[in-house]
Amino acid sequence: MRALVVEHDSLSTPERVGEHLERRGVSLEPFIVVHDLENPEVDVAFPEADGYDLVVLMGAPWSVYESRVQRWVRPEMELVSHHLARGTPVLGICFGAQIMASCLGATVSRTSRPEYGWGTVESRSRDIAPGPWFQFHHDEFTLPDGAVPLAYTESGLQAFAHQRSLGVQFHPEVTPRLVSSWFEVGGDVELTEAGIDPDELVEETSRLALLTQPALEQMLDWWLEELAGG
Questions:
Q1: Is 83 a catalytic residue?
Q2: From CA 91, how far away is CA 99, in angstroms rounded?
Q3: One of 15, 140, 173, 190 is an active-site residue; which one?
Q4: How many helices (H) and strands (E) does the chain have?
Q5: Which end is more exposed in the chain, N or C (fewer Cβ atoms within 10 Å of the end residue's Cβ)?
Q6: Structural domain range at position 75
């Protein structure tokens, strides 16, 4: 199987998610949207839609409603809408889930309750473990029409399924290396302002990434075998 992996920037890589998909026989074809984090106002020619069995939409340091990313968010939404309409299984992670939700008519907005670090969710599916899952966002989105809610926190919707596709607000892909890279380009400022020690969070990630691997694999296997394969 071929999977288009939309990496919205060079630090939004699939890591553990990609590794498990490859173990399941999926060939990953990454496409980086923004190459310079300081200049997201770019025009982007996305890959042709044909030829992919899966689409994976990664996170990003921006929000889908920001004016400075609209030059590529709009064509990305056209691409994702095309795949959703034709039934291509899509996996959206954080920003990627917000792109999916927007394509399906939901509303994305800034939340008054941002989430940072490891925390649990209220799961409504036996295939989405309560966690802990890694959170790093300040947005929320409504449930798209026709979608099935799978998990919530006090900050809002955390996971949903729509036909053959799955969107999650949390970051199942994280590794200590990935989290550290986010902090090196300014993500640590948000954490410090929220009263969280970035170094302690990296150390916690070193422990919990391994502990949560079975939950990650369970969720991805369910997506591949039941949603995508259904």
A1: no
A2: 11
A3: 173
A4: 7, 10
A5: C
A6: 2-227
- What pLDDT, on the 0 to 100 scale, is given for residue 52? 97
- Establish whether 173 is a catalytic residue: yes
What share of the chain in percent tops pLDDT 90? 93
Helices (H), the chain: 15-23, 70-86, 95-103, 176-182, 188-193, 198-211, 213-222
Catalytic residue among 8, 76, 94, 162: 94
How many domains are contained in the chain? 1
Using CA atoms of 20, 60, 90, 45 in order, give the dihedral in degrees to the nearest 10: -120
Q: What's the CA gap between 186 and 5, in Å, rounded?
A: 24
CB 27 within 8 A of CB 2: yes
**Both tokens assigned to 141:** 């989105």
Q: Does 94 qualify as catalytic in the annotation? A: yes
Give residue 138's pLDDT: 93
- Mean pLDDT across the chain: 96
pLDDT for 187 equals 83
Q: Residue 230 pLDDT more than 70?
A: no
Count other C-beta atoms under 10 Å from residue 48's C-beta: 9
CATH number (domain holding residue 200):
3.40.50.880
Buried b (16+ CB within 10 A) or exposed e, 115-144: bbbbbebebeeebbbebbbbbbbebbbbbb
**Averaged pLDDT, 156-177:** 98
Q: How much of the chain is helix, strand and coil, in % rounded to 5? A: 35, 30, 35
DSSP, collapsed to helix, strand or coil, labels residue 110 as strand
Tokens of 4: 């288009």
In contact, 182 and 94? CB cutoff 8 Å? no
